[in-house]
């Protein structure tokens, strides 16, 4: 890898990682999932988010991303559906009674069995969160458009895409494992009811603002 390609790789990888550090809906979902029970089940959310990112990265690599970004109707639909999806998650988090969090407390002090069904549900939640967020498409599109010129080989672009997908997954898994540590988990679990309400409210506000922004432009 020559110096110019190495410089591009470092620039794009750094910009991508800094974007990951900014908490968004995906981060909130990862935290919620990590606090609910088995960390292996929670990894489903991380995998779903990573795959959704991979889809958008792939679309940008083959040029479809640029076409999609110019489709006003599609972008509006993605925003509305994504906003409603976040509001749906928020609704269930906010309506849950305090007694529903007893299982979370138990989970912190016992071994919660891995469930493939739960894993798939978590995966679906993570994937939908990522794929219904048009900001992900626009972010990768801008990243690839600004940093990668037509002269850069497709092989290099694929390597960069795989790298970014892995970083998304590894970062989310790291958060899950950090919250799975007994001391950290016990502190979070004691306030799990309030944390879930706050994260639910945050997701609801984000979802509402997304839908509102679309509505106000009509």
From TrEMBL:
It is a multi-pass membrane protein. Its main location: membrane. Keywords: Cell membrane, Membrane, Transmembrane, Transmembrane helix. This is Lysine transporter LysE. It comes from the Bacteria. It is found in: Cell membrane. The keyword Transmembrane helix applies.
């Amino acid at each position: 890898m020559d110096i110019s390609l190495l410089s591009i790789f470092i620039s794009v990888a750094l910009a991508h990682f800094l974007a990951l550090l900014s908490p968004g809906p995906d981060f909130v979902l990862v935290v919620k999932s990590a606090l609910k029970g088995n960390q292996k089940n929670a990894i489903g959310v991380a995998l779903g988010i990573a795959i959704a990112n991979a889809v958008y990265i792939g679309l940008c690599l083959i040029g479809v991303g640029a076409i999609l970004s110019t489709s006003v109707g599609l972008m509006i639909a993605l925003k509305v559906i994504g906003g409603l999806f976040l509001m749906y998650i928020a609704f269930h988090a906010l309506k849950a009674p305090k007694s529903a969090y007893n299982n979370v407390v138990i989970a912190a002090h016992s071994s919660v069995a891995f469930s493939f069904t739960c894993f798939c549900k978590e995966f679906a939640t993570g994937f939908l969160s990522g794929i219904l967020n048009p900001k992900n498409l626009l972010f990768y599109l801008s990243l690839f458009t600004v940093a990668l010129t037509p002269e850069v080989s497709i092989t290099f672009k694929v390597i960069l895409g795989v790298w970014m997908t892995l970083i998304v997954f590894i970062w989310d898994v790291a958060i899950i494992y950090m919250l799975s540590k007994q001391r950290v988990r016990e502190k979070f679990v004691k306030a799990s009811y309030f944390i879930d309400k706050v994260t639910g409210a945050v997701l609801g506000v984000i979802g509402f603002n997304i839908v509102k922004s679309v509505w106000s432009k009509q």
